Amino acid sequence: MRCATANGDIRIPVLGMGTWCFGGRTEHDADNDDKSQISALKNGIECGFTLIDTAEYYASGYAEELIGKAINGYDRQQLFITSKVWKSNASKAGVQRSCEDSLRRLKTDYLDCYLYHHFNPDIPLEETIEALNTLVERGLTRSIGVSNFSASLLLKAISLSENPIVINQVHCNLAVREALENLQECCREHGVVLQAWRPVRDLEETPECRKLCSKYGVTFPQLALAWLLNMPEIAVITAMKDPRHLPENMAALSLVIEPEDMEILNNYPLRRPCGVPLA
Ligand SMILES: NC(=O)c1ccc[n+]([C@@H]2O[C@H](COP(=O)([O-])OP(=O)(O)OC[C@H]3O[C@@H](n4cnc5c(N)ncnc54)[C@H](OP(=O)(O)O)[C@@H]3O)[C@@H](O)[C@H]2O)c1
């Protein structure tokens, strides 16, 4: 798997598996099809995916339990596992407890990167960043990162942290490009990998995209992924429950898009981002 290199020489796989809606949405769904989702994750690893992204927020920790079952038997060192602390747990004690709980559910003794999911203005950033650094000292995570951080918040986090901030995971796709305007340069300057979430969901194929799909012989989701993957130092995570999507998305890694076609895609109709604006 191709990797982007962040500060501190942490190598981050540029395409990873997401787990939002695995095990439920914000709560554990008792009728969830655990078996097929564990098998989708295992298939992904067999297919060459090494990065798995999750959060304590996903299905209230149940997504982490599914991952714990899926990675059992694989060489842990070959995997790159990221989880995130939810904003209500961003206090000094909350961060330690959340990370320990995530590790227990994931059945692993360390994370490759632990992210602060959403900034909570009620808790001083200093406190959360110090707590994340303590996790590195305790050996519970190899690196730390943030998510949904604007450039100014990211710079503040960088200035407060002893260890490098290696990832900023943000909403970014063909229709939601605010991160490319406001954040990409700042991430590059400071050695932070911009990791795009929701690269595929909710996008519609325009006539221009249809032409490009037939030119390159790819599906629209592959084109949407390849557009991001053709930009330097950008990483992408996508959720795939359907096993057919795993090799399909892996193939998007090697699709080279010509500059004039990148330009067409750069003008895809914009949509308002969901969640907190980055600006
Ligand atoms: N930090 C944050 O605040 C934040 C917020 C949202 C998400 N995330 C992370 O980012 C990950 C990705 O975002 P997301 O899950 O919201 O959206 P996404 O990855 O853009 O979309 C996932 C959806 O796209 C479908 N899909 C994937 N590949 C496809 C293909 N080749 N052909 C057709 N359909 C395809 C999947 O279908 P199947 O399931 O049927 O395969 C699934 O319904 C999440 O899972 C989560 O780990 C982070």
Can you characterise this structure?
This protein is of the alpha/beta class. The protein has one domain (3-266): NADP-dependent oxidoreductase domain (TIM Barrel, Alpha-Beta Barrel), CATH 3.20.20. Helices cover 39% and strands 16% of the residues. The protein has eleven helices and ten strands. The protein has an eight-stranded parallel β-barrel with strand order 3-4-5-6-7-8-9-10, surrounded by four helices. Strand 3 (15-18), helix 1 and strand 4 form a beta-alpha-beta unit. Helix 3 packs across helix 4 and helix 9 (220-229) packs parallel to helix 10. The longest helix is centred in the middle third of the chain and has 15 residues, at 92-106. The mean pLDDT is 96. The structure holds NADP nicotinamide-adenine-dinucleotide phosphate.
Feature tags:
279 residues, alpha/beta, binds NADP nicotinamide-adenine-dinucleotide phosphate, two-stranded antiparallel sheet, single chain, TIM Barrel, 16% strand
Q: Beta-strand percentage?
A: 15-25%
In DSSP terms, counting alpha (H) and pi (I) runs of 4 or more, how many helices? 11
Uncertain stretches of 5 or more adjacent residues: none
* Topology-level CATH name: TIM Barrel
Bound molecules: NADP nicotinamide-adenine-dinucleotide phosphate
DSSP, total strands = 10
Please trace the helix and strand order, writing H or E for each element.
Answer: EEEHEHEHEHEHEHHEHHEHH
**Strand order within the widest sheet?**
3-4-5-6-7-8-9-10
